[in-house]
């Protein structure tokens, strides 16, 4: 999945289970990532990925 983002947006990603890559950062079950100042959100699915993605406004 690829999504254009405004560089002022805040994105939070929570891995429920499985594996994936978010903007080049590998995540596994239970991991979380906060993305700020990104012009693009890119998620590459891995094995058995279940993920929650939050698009938050500053």
Give a description of the structure:
This protein has 58 residues and is mainly beta. It has a single domain (2-56), classed as Jelly Rolls (Sandwich). It contains no helices and 7 strands. It starts with a strand and ends with a strand. The mean pLDDT is 90.
The gist of it:
With 58 residues, the protein is mainly β. The chain has strands spanning 2-4, 10-17, 19-22, 25-28, 32-36, 40-45, 50-56. It is globular and about 30 Å long.
Tag the structure with descriptive keywords.
58 residues; mainly beta; Jelly Rolls; four-stranded antiparallel sheet
Query: Major beta sheet, specifics?
Result: 4 strands, antiparallel
Query: Which ranges are low-confidence, i.e. pLDDT below 50, for 5 or more consecutive residues?
Result: none
What's the CATH C level? Mainly Beta
CATH superfamily: Jelly Rolls
Strand content: over 45%
Strand order of the largest sheet: 1-6-3-4
């Amino acid at each position: 999945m690829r999504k254009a983002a405004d560089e002022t947006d805040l994105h939070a990603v929570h891995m429920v289970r499985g594996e994936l890559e978010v903007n080049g950062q590998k995540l596994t079950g239970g991991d979380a990532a906060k993305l700020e100042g990104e012009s693009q959100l890119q998620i590459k699915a891995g094995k058995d990925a279940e993920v929650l993605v939050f698009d938050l406004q500053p």
